[in-house]
Amino acid sequence: MQNPTFAGLLAAALSLTVGLPASAAPASGSQTYDVIRKGKDIGDQVIHFQSSGDTLTVTLVTDVSVKVLGIEAYGFHQKSVENWNSGHLATLSSHTDDNGKTHDINVKGDGLVPASLWNEQVAQNGTLLNTIDGSKMKVSVKKVGTEAITAGGQQVPATHYRLSGDLERDLWYDADGRLVHVAMKGEDGSQVDYVLR
Question: What whole-number distance in Å separates Cα of residue 173 and Cα of residue 177?
Fold first, then answer.
């Protein structure tokens, strides 16, 4: 889901022809991430999963606010809804307020999988669909290896992938394909992490 700015906190989708792996998508429930910058909590991302038969709806809400002297210097707010059918993306819609600049998209799946990043399949291909503005981006993916990462207050083994190119992210997924950590650089060069609560 992405602009190549600090704003692009979590947007994009990967070109993919295979279906969604069952382990990556809980039948229901939610996952919450704290967004950390320079050691401070600057926001949250919450991912809700709701399934019915062969359909799955994934709703992602991201709210980030960077304040300087108590005044918001930067804000990123996005709500996106992914509708999956039989393991394939049917539609994706999103509304984004990127520091006052708004974007609305409503697109068909067309063989793509959103890189809302929760789905480990983002590491399997190199064409991404920006879920902010609908543009495509090219990335290279490197599998770094298995590492211990803190998730849910405990250490878990996770597979580390590094995305580079039009979108630069480090992603960690546990043995069940669950996204447990995201790391990126902000526009000012600061480290920004999404940490599974």
Answer: 5
Structure tokens at 16: 């993919």
Q: How many CB atoms lie within 10 A of CB 18?
A: 12
Residues 97-149: tens digit of each pLDDT: 999 999 999 998 887 777 789 988 888 878 777 889 877 878 899 999 999 99
* 161 to 35, 38, 120: CA distances (angstroms): 19, 22, 9
The tokens for 75 are: 């804000």
Locate 94 and state its tokens. 């999103």
Hey, where are the domains in the chain? 13-138
Q: How far is residue 34's CA from residue 185's CA, in Å, rounded to a whole number? A: 16
**Contact in structure between 163 and 157 (CB atoms under 8 Å):** no
Query: Is 62 in a helix, a strand, or coil?
Result: strand
Q: Read off the tokens for 167.
A: 């979108």
Query: Is-contact 5 166, C-beta < 8 A?
Result: no
Render the burial of 88-121: b for 16+ CB within 10 Å, e for the rest.
Answer: bbeebebebebeeeebebebebeebbbbbbbbbb
> Within 10 A of 131 (CB to CB), how many other CB atoms are there?
29
**3 state SS of 22:** helix
- The whole-model pTM stands at 0.85
Q: For residue 25, what pLDDT band results from cuts at 50, 70 and 90?
A: low
Dump pLDDT digits (tens) for 40-51: 999 999 999 999
